[in-house]
Amino acid sequence: MHSHLHRSLIQRTLSSSSSRFALPPFSNSLSTMASSSLTLPSISLHKQLPFNASSSNSLRIRSLQPRNPDRSRVFMTSVSVGSQALVNDSLFSDYSPTSAFLFPGQGAQAVGMGKEAQNVPAAAELYKKANDILGFDLLDICVNGPKEKLDSTVISQPAIYVTSLAAVELFRVRDGGQQIIDSVDVTCGLSLGEYTALAFAGAFSFEDGLKLVKLRGEAMQEAADAAKGAMVSIIGLDSEKVQQLCDAANQEVDEADKVQIANYLCPGNYAVSGGVKGVEALEAKAKSFKARMTVRLAVAGAFHTSFMEPAVSRLEAALAATEIRTPKIPVISNVDAQPHADPDTIKKILARQVTSPVQWETTVKTLLTKGLKKSYELGPGKVIAGIVKRMDKSAVIENVGA
Protein backbone atom coordinates (compact mmCIF):
# COMPACT_ATOMS: atom_id res chain seq x y z
CA MET A 1 0.00 0.00 0.00
CA HIS A 2 1.09 3.58 -0.45
CA SER A 3 3.33 5.60 1.77
CA HIS A 4 0.63 6.98 4.04
CA LEU A 5 -1.67 4.00 4.33
CA HIS A 6 -0.51 2.01 7.34
CA ARG A 7 0.91 5.02 9.18
CA SER A 8 -2.36 6.94 8.77
CA LEU A 9 -4.44 4.00 9.90
CA ILE A 10 -2.47 3.51 13.10
CA GLN A 11 -2.25 7.19 13.96
CA ARG A 12 -5.98 7.52 13.60
CA THR A 13 -6.90 4.56 15.74
CA LEU A 14 -4.35 4.55 18.51
CA SER A 15 -5.68 7.79 21.01
CA SER A 16 7.26 -25.50 15.42
CA SER A 17 9.94 -25.71 13.48
CA SER A 18 12.19 -22.81 12.68
CA SER A 19 14.68 -22.81 15.52
CA ARG A 20 16.11 -25.92 13.99
CA PHE A 21 17.40 -23.94 11.04
CA ALA A 22 19.76 -21.09 11.90
CA LEU A 23 19.65 -18.58 9.07
CA PRO A 24 23.10 -17.36 7.97
CA PRO A 25 23.81 -13.69 7.28
CA PHE A 26 21.81 -12.23 4.41
CA SER A 27 24.90 -10.70 2.91
CA ASN A 28 26.24 -14.07 1.84
CA SER A 29 23.94 -17.03 2.38
CA LEU A 30 20.77 -15.51 1.01
CA SER A 31 22.53 -14.75 -2.21
CA THR A 32 23.05 -18.50 -2.56
CA MET A 33 19.96 -19.56 -0.84
CA ALA A 34 -9.66 -14.40 7.04
CA SER A 35 -10.97 -15.07 4.11
CA SER A 36 -10.25 -14.53 0.51
CA SER A 37 -12.01 -14.97 -2.76
CA LEU A 38 -8.96 -16.76 -4.08
CA THR A 39 -9.01 -20.54 -4.05
CA LEU A 40 -5.53 -22.01 -4.08
CA PRO A 41 -4.62 -25.61 -4.85
CA SER A 42 -3.14 -27.83 -2.18
CA ILE A 43 -1.05 -30.83 -3.12
CA SER A 44 -1.31 -33.64 -0.59
CA LEU A 45 1.47 -36.16 -1.01
CA HIS A 46 2.30 -37.15 2.53
CA LYS A 47 5.31 -35.25 3.93
CA GLN A 48 7.19 -34.21 0.85
CA LEU A 49 9.42 -31.19 0.38
CA PRO A 50 11.46 -30.06 -2.61
CA PHE A 51 15.13 -30.60 -3.12
CA ASN A 52 17.01 -30.55 -6.40
CA ALA A 53 15.18 -32.95 -8.63
CA SER A 54 17.02 -35.67 -10.46
CA SER A 55 17.11 -35.56 -14.22
CA SER A 56 16.68 -39.30 -14.31
CA ASN A 57 13.41 -41.17 -13.91
CA SER A 58 14.51 -42.90 -10.75
CA LEU A 59 12.72 -42.23 -7.47
CA ARG A 60 14.88 -40.49 -4.89
CA ILE A 61 14.03 -39.64 -1.30
CA ARG A 62 16.12 -37.37 0.88
CA SER A 63 15.53 -36.03 4.36
CA LEU A 64 16.81 -33.00 6.18
CA GLN A 65 17.18 -33.39 9.93
CA PRO A 66 16.71 -30.24 12.02
CA ARG A 67 19.80 -28.91 13.73
CA ASN A 68 18.25 -29.16 17.19
CA PRO A 69 16.29 -32.43 17.38
CA ASP A 70 14.82 -31.82 20.82
CA ARG A 71 12.93 -28.80 19.43
CA SER A 72 11.92 -30.59 16.28
CA ARG A 73 8.37 -30.75 14.95
CA VAL A 74 8.79 -31.19 11.21
CA PHE A 75 11.11 -33.54 9.34
CA MET A 76 11.37 -32.42 5.75
CA THR A 77 11.50 -34.93 2.95
CA SER A 78 11.08 -34.74 -0.77
CA VAL A 79 10.22 -37.11 -3.54
CA SER A 80 11.65 -36.38 -6.97
CA VAL A 81 10.17 -38.18 -9.95
CA GLY A 82 11.91 -37.30 -13.18
CA SER A 83 12.53 -33.55 -12.95
CA GLN A 84 9.54 -32.61 -10.79
CA ALA A 85 9.54 -32.26 -7.00
CA LEU A 86 6.24 -32.95 -5.28
CA VAL A 87 5.40 -31.00 -2.14
CA ASN A 88 2.82 -31.24 0.58
CA ASP A 89 1.60 -27.65 0.86
CA SER A 90 0.03 -28.24 4.28
CA LEU A 91 3.33 -29.20 5.90
CA PHE A 92 3.25 -26.23 8.30
CA SER A 93 -0.50 -26.27 8.98
CA ASP A 94 -0.10 -27.39 12.60
CA TYR A 95 2.63 -24.89 13.46
CA SER A 96 3.00 -23.81 17.09
CA PRO A 97 4.55 -20.33 17.23
CA THR A 98 6.68 -19.16 20.13
CA SER A 99 8.90 -16.45 18.61
CA ALA A 100 8.05 -14.43 15.49
CA PHE A 101 9.75 -11.98 13.16
CA LEU A 102 7.25 -9.50 11.68
CA PHE A 103 8.10 -7.24 8.76
CA PRO A 104 6.45 -3.90 7.88
CA GLY A 105 4.71 -2.92 4.67
CA GLN A 106 4.56 0.16 2.52
CA GLY A 107 3.91 3.25 4.62
CA ALA A 108 6.55 2.45 7.24
CA GLN A 109 9.31 4.27 5.35
CA ALA A 110 10.84 7.47 6.73
CA VAL A 111 13.74 9.64 5.64
CA GLY A 112 16.80 8.66 7.66
CA MET A 113 16.21 4.93 7.66
CA GLY A 114 19.19 2.77 6.78
CA LYS A 115 21.73 5.11 8.34
CA GLU A 116 22.38 2.89 11.36
CA ALA A 117 22.79 -0.13 9.10
CA GLN A 118 26.01 1.31 7.71
CA ASN A 119 27.72 0.47 11.01
CA VAL A 120 27.33 -3.27 10.31
CA PRO A 121 29.21 -4.56 7.24
CA ALA A 122 26.68 -7.31 6.43
CA ALA A 123 23.85 -4.78 6.52
CA ALA A 124 25.73 -2.15 4.53
CA GLU A 125 26.48 -4.77 1.88
CA LEU A 126 22.75 -5.23 1.24
CA TYR A 127 22.42 -1.61 0.10
CA LYS A 128 25.43 -2.00 -2.21
CA LYS A 129 23.84 -5.07 -3.80
CA ALA A 130 20.54 -3.19 -4.04
CA ASN A 131 22.16 -0.30 -5.91
CA ASP A 132 23.44 -2.71 -8.56
CA ILE A 133 20.04 -4.33 -9.00
CA LEU A 134 17.94 -1.15 -8.90
CA GLY A 135 20.27 1.07 -10.91
CA PHE A 136 20.15 3.98 -8.46
CA ASP A 137 21.52 4.87 -5.01
CA LEU A 138 18.84 3.45 -2.72
CA LEU A 139 20.72 4.26 0.48
CA ASP A 140 21.02 7.94 -0.45
CA ILE A 141 17.25 8.21 -0.92
CA CYS A 142 16.59 6.30 2.32
CA VAL A 143 18.91 8.48 4.36
CA ASN A 144 18.49 11.87 2.67
CA GLY A 145 15.18 11.74 0.82
CA PRO A 146 13.47 13.78 -0.45
CA LYS A 147 10.40 12.40 1.28
CA GLU A 148 8.24 12.63 -1.84
CA LYS A 149 10.67 10.42 -3.73
CA LEU A 150 11.01 7.89 -0.92
CA ASP A 151 7.22 7.74 -0.56
CA SER A 152 6.65 6.78 -4.19
CA THR A 153 5.49 3.20 -4.68
CA VAL A 154 8.37 2.23 -6.96
CA ILE A 155 11.01 3.33 -4.43
CA SER A 156 9.38 2.77 -1.03
CA GLN A 157 8.80 -0.94 -1.63
CA PRO A 158 12.46 -1.82 -2.38
CA ALA A 159 13.57 0.59 0.36
CA ILE A 160 11.50 -1.12 3.04
CA TYR A 161 12.48 -4.60 1.85
CA VAL A 162 16.20 -3.83 2.00
CA THR A 163 16.05 -1.86 5.25
CA SER A 164 14.04 -4.59 6.98
CA LEU A 165 16.60 -7.26 6.05
CA ALA A 166 19.36 -4.88 7.10
CA ALA A 167 17.63 -4.70 10.49
CA VAL A 168 18.01 -8.48 10.75
CA GLU A 169 21.76 -8.05 10.32
CA LEU A 170 21.87 -5.38 13.03
CA PHE A 171 19.93 -7.72 15.27
CA ARG A 172 22.31 -10.58 14.48
CA VAL A 173 25.41 -8.82 15.81
CA ARG A 174 23.89 -7.62 19.06
CA ASP A 175 24.40 -9.64 22.23
CA GLY A 176 22.27 -12.77 21.99
CA GLY A 177 20.89 -11.79 18.60
CA GLN A 178 21.96 -14.89 16.72
CA GLN A 179 20.42 -17.13 19.38
CA ILE A 180 17.11 -15.31 19.05
CA ILE A 181 17.23 -15.55 15.26
CA ASP A 182 17.83 -19.29 15.62
CA SER A 183 14.77 -19.56 17.88
CA VAL A 184 12.34 -17.80 15.54
CA ASP A 185 9.76 -20.36 14.42
CA VAL A 186 7.30 -18.27 12.38
CA THR A 187 7.46 -15.12 10.28
CA CYS A 188 5.14 -12.90 8.28
CA GLY A 189 4.93 -9.42 6.85
CA LEU A 190 2.27 -6.84 6.13
CA SER A 191 1.56 -6.88 2.38
CA LEU A 192 4.99 -6.01 0.90
CA GLY A 193 6.49 -7.43 4.11
CA GLU A 194 5.50 -10.93 3.01
CA TYR A 195 8.36 -10.81 0.49
CA THR A 196 10.75 -9.81 3.27
CA ALA A 197 9.50 -12.68 5.43
CA LEU A 198 9.98 -15.17 2.60
CA ALA A 199 13.54 -13.94 2.04
CA PHE A 200 14.28 -14.27 5.76
CA ALA A 201 12.89 -17.81 5.72
CA GLY A 202 15.11 -18.76 2.77
CA ALA A 203 12.32 -19.17 0.20
CA PHE A 204 14.33 -17.06 -2.24
CA SER A 205 17.60 -15.13 -2.28
CA PHE A 206 17.94 -11.52 -1.23
CA GLU A 207 18.65 -10.57 -4.84
CA ASP A 208 15.70 -12.45 -6.32
CA GLY A 209 13.38 -11.04 -3.69
CA LEU A 210 14.52 -7.49 -4.45
CA LYS A 211 13.96 -8.00 -8.17
CA LEU A 212 10.43 -9.19 -7.45
CA VAL A 213 9.74 -6.26 -5.12
CA LYS A 214 11.07 -3.79 -7.70
CA LEU A 215 8.78 -5.22 -10.36
CA ARG A 216 5.85 -5.35 -7.93
CA GLY A 217 6.16 -1.65 -7.16
CA GLU A 218 6.40 -0.75 -10.83
CA ALA A 219 3.46 -2.96 -11.79
CA MET A 220 1.23 -1.61 -9.01
CA GLN A 221 2.04 1.98 -9.98
CA GLU A 222 1.23 1.29 -13.63
CA ALA A 223 -2.05 -0.39 -12.68
CA ALA A 224 -2.95 2.60 -10.52
CA ASP A 225 -2.16 5.00 -13.38
CA ALA A 226 -4.39 3.01 -15.73
CA ALA A 227 -7.56 3.26 -13.59
CA LYS A 228 -8.75 5.97 -11.25
CA GLY A 229 -9.06 4.46 -7.80
CA ALA A 230 -8.93 5.58 -4.20
CA MET A 231 -8.65 4.26 -0.67
CA VAL A 232 -10.26 5.35 2.57
CA SER A 233 -9.78 4.29 6.16
CA ILE A 234 -12.93 3.50 8.14
CA ILE A 235 -12.47 4.05 11.86
CA GLY A 236 -14.67 2.76 14.66
CA LEU A 237 -16.63 -0.04 12.96
CA ASP A 238 -16.22 -3.80 13.06
CA SER A 239 -15.57 -5.64 9.82
CA GLU A 240 -19.21 -6.71 9.41
CA LYS A 241 -20.42 -3.11 9.60
CA VAL A 242 -17.75 -1.99 7.15
CA GLN A 243 -18.90 -4.67 4.72
CA GLN A 244 -22.48 -3.47 5.07
CA LEU A 245 -21.28 0.07 4.39
CA CYS A 246 -19.51 -1.12 1.25
CA ASP A 247 -22.64 -2.96 0.10
CA ALA A 248 -24.72 0.20 0.57
CA ALA A 249 -22.25 2.34 -1.36
CA ASN A 250 -22.03 -0.21 -4.17
CA GLN A 251 -25.78 0.03 -4.77
CA GLU A 252 -25.28 3.59 -5.98
CA VAL A 253 -22.39 3.17 -8.42
CA ASP A 254 -21.54 1.27 -11.58
CA GLU A 255 -19.50 -1.92 -11.53
CA ALA A 256 -16.32 -0.03 -12.41
CA ASP A 257 -16.57 2.11 -9.26
CA LYS A 258 -17.48 -0.56 -6.69
CA VAL A 259 -15.57 -0.74 -3.41
CA GLN A 260 -14.40 -3.52 -1.13
CA ILE A 261 -12.46 -4.01 2.08
CA ALA A 262 -8.80 -4.05 1.08
CA ASN A 263 -7.04 -4.24 4.43
CA TYR A 264 -8.27 -6.00 7.56
CA LEU A 265 -5.75 -4.26 9.77
CA CYS A 266 -7.12 -4.60 13.30
CA PRO A 267 -10.48 -4.24 15.09
CA GLY A 268 -12.02 -0.84 14.37
CA ASN A 269 -9.52 -0.07 11.61
CA TYR A 270 -10.14 -1.19 8.05
CA ALA A 271 -9.18 0.22 4.67
CA VAL A 272 -11.58 0.23 1.73
CA SER A 273 -10.46 0.45 -1.91
CA GLY A 274 -12.35 1.04 -5.13
CA GLY A 275 -13.44 3.52 -7.73
CA VAL A 276 -13.46 7.21 -6.82
CA LYS A 277 -17.26 7.47 -7.06
CA GLY A 278 -17.68 4.41 -4.89
CA VAL A 279 -15.33 5.78 -2.25
CA GLU A 280 -17.21 9.10 -2.28
CA ALA A 281 -20.52 7.28 -1.82
CA LEU A 282 -19.06 5.31 1.07
CA GLU A 283 -17.76 8.46 2.75
CA ALA A 284 -21.19 10.08 2.45
CA LYS A 285 -22.87 7.11 4.16
CA ALA A 286 -20.28 6.44 6.86
CA LYS A 287 -21.88 8.67 9.51
CA SER A 288 -25.23 6.91 9.17
CA PHE A 289 -23.44 3.62 9.89
CA LYS A 290 -21.97 5.22 13.02
CA ALA A 291 -18.37 5.24 11.84
CA ARG A 292 -16.26 7.46 14.06
CA MET A 293 -14.46 8.92 11.05
CA THR A 294 -13.23 8.28 7.55
CA VAL A 295 -9.77 9.20 6.36
CA ARG A 296 -9.06 9.45 2.64
CA LEU A 297 -5.63 7.95 2.10
CA ALA A 298 -3.00 9.55 -0.12
CA VAL A 299 -2.32 6.46 -2.20
CA ALA A 300 -1.63 5.85 -5.87
CA GLY A 301 -4.73 3.73 -6.41
CA ALA A 302 -7.10 1.03 -5.19
CA PHE A 303 -4.55 -1.44 -3.86
CA HIS A 304 -5.56 -5.01 -2.96
CA THR A 305 -8.59 -5.01 -5.25
CA SER A 306 -9.35 -5.98 -8.84
CA PHE A 307 -8.06 -2.54 -9.86
CA MET A 308 -4.59 -4.09 -9.52
CA GLU A 309 -5.41 -6.91 -11.94
CA PRO A 310 -3.07 -5.54 -14.66
CA ALA A 311 -0.16 -6.11 -12.26
CA VAL A 312 -0.93 -9.81 -11.82
CA SER A 313 0.28 -11.04 -15.21
CA ARG A 314 3.61 -9.24 -14.81
CA LEU A 315 4.08 -10.74 -11.35
CA GLU A 316 3.13 -14.20 -12.60
CA ALA A 317 5.77 -14.03 -15.33
CA ALA A 318 8.46 -12.84 -12.93
CA LEU A 319 7.55 -15.42 -10.30
CA ALA A 320 7.59 -18.21 -12.88
CA ALA A 321 11.19 -17.32 -13.68
CA THR A 322 12.22 -17.12 -10.00
CA GLU A 323 13.53 -20.05 -7.97
CA ILE A 324 11.36 -20.38 -4.89
CA ARG A 325 12.05 -23.05 -2.28
CA THR A 326 10.05 -24.35 0.64
CA PRO A 327 10.59 -21.89 3.53
CA LYS A 328 12.65 -23.16 6.46
CA ILE A 329 9.97 -21.89 8.85
CA PRO A 330 6.26 -21.12 8.38
CA VAL A 331 5.59 -17.87 6.51
CA ILE A 332 2.00 -16.69 6.98
CA SER A 333 0.30 -15.49 3.79
CA ASN A 334 -1.62 -12.22 3.62
CA VAL A 335 -4.12 -13.85 1.28
CA ASP A 336 -5.46 -16.59 3.56
CA ALA A 337 -3.57 -16.14 6.86
CA GLN A 338 -2.06 -19.61 6.44
CA PRO A 339 1.51 -20.88 5.96
CA HIS A 340 2.35 -22.63 2.69
CA ALA A 341 5.15 -25.05 1.87
CA ASP A 342 4.70 -25.72 -1.84
CA PRO A 343 6.75 -23.29 -3.96
CA ASP A 344 4.21 -23.33 -6.80
CA THR A 345 1.43 -22.42 -4.37
CA ILE A 346 3.56 -19.63 -2.91
CA LYS A 347 4.04 -18.24 -6.43
CA LYS A 348 0.28 -18.27 -7.04
CA ILE A 349 -0.36 -16.52 -3.72
CA LEU A 350 2.20 -13.79 -4.36
CA ALA A 351 0.74 -13.09 -7.79
CA ARG A 352 -2.78 -12.76 -6.41
CA GLN A 353 -1.77 -10.90 -3.26
CA VAL A 354 -1.99 -7.48 -4.94
CA THR A 355 -5.69 -8.03 -5.75
CA SER A 356 -6.65 -9.84 -2.53
CA PRO A 357 -7.61 -8.26 0.81
CA VAL A 358 -4.83 -8.24 3.39
CA GLN A 359 -5.79 -10.62 6.21
CA TRP A 360 -3.50 -9.09 8.84
CA GLU A 361 -6.04 -9.06 11.65
CA THR A 362 -6.63 -12.80 11.27
CA THR A 363 -2.89 -13.44 11.03
CA VAL A 364 -2.07 -11.66 14.29
CA LYS A 365 -5.10 -13.11 16.07
CA THR A 366 -4.11 -16.63 15.02
CA LEU A 367 -0.52 -16.18 16.18
CA LEU A 368 -1.66 -14.93 19.57
CA THR A 369 -4.26 -17.67 19.93
CA LYS A 370 -1.70 -20.34 19.06
CA GLY A 371 0.47 -19.18 21.95
CA LEU A 372 3.03 -16.75 20.50
CA LYS A 373 5.30 -15.66 23.33
CA LYS A 374 7.27 -12.79 21.81
CA SER A 375 7.57 -11.08 18.46
CA TYR A 376 9.98 -8.64 16.87
CA GLU A 377 9.17 -5.95 14.31
CA LEU A 378 12.22 -5.62 12.07
CA GLY A 379 12.52 -2.61 9.81
CA PRO A 380 11.39 1.00 9.71
CA GLY A 381 8.49 2.31 11.78
CA LYS A 382 6.41 0.86 14.59
CA VAL A 383 3.13 0.24 12.79
CA ILE A 384 3.02 -3.49 13.41
CA ALA A 385 3.81 -3.11 17.10
CA GLY A 386 0.89 -0.72 17.38
CA ILE A 387 -1.46 -3.22 15.73
CA VAL A 388 -0.32 -6.10 17.92
CA LYS A 389 -0.67 -4.04 21.10
CA ARG A 390 -4.12 -2.87 20.06
CA MET A 391 -5.21 -6.48 19.66
CA ASP A 392 -3.56 -7.65 22.89
CA LYS A 393 -2.19 -5.13 25.37
CA SER A 394 -0.20 -7.84 27.10
CA ALA A 395 1.55 -8.98 23.94
CA VAL A 396 5.35 -8.73 24.00
CA ILE A 397 6.84 -7.12 20.90
CA GLU A 398 10.16 -5.37 20.32
CA ASN A 399 11.10 -2.98 17.52
CA VAL A 400 14.41 -3.42 15.73
CA GLY A 401 15.16 -0.62 13.29
CA ALA A 402 18.03 0.04 10.92
From TrEMBL:
Q: Gene3D superfamilies of this UniProt entry?
A: Malonyl-CoA ACP transacylase, ACP-binding, Malonyl-Coenzyme A Acyl Carrier Protein, domain 2
Occurrences of domain Malonyl-CoA:ACP transacylase (MAT) (ranges): 102-401
The UniProt entry, under InterPro entries, shows: Ac_transferase_dom_sf, Acyl_transferase_dom, Acyl_Trfase/lysoPLipase, Malonyl_CoA-ACP_transAc_FabD, Malonyl_transacylase_ACP-bd, Mitochondrial_malonyltrans
What does the record give under GO molecular function? [acyl-carrier-protein] S-malonyltransferase activity
Which domain of life does the protein's organism represent? Eukaryota
Q: Which NCBIfam families match?
A: fabD
| PANTHER family on file | MALONYL-COA ACP TRANSACYLASE, ACP-BINDING, MALONYL-COA:ACP TRANSACYLASE (MAT) DOMAIN-CONTAINING PROTEIN
Q: What is this protein called?
A: Malonyl-CoA:ACP transacylase (MAT) domain-containing protein
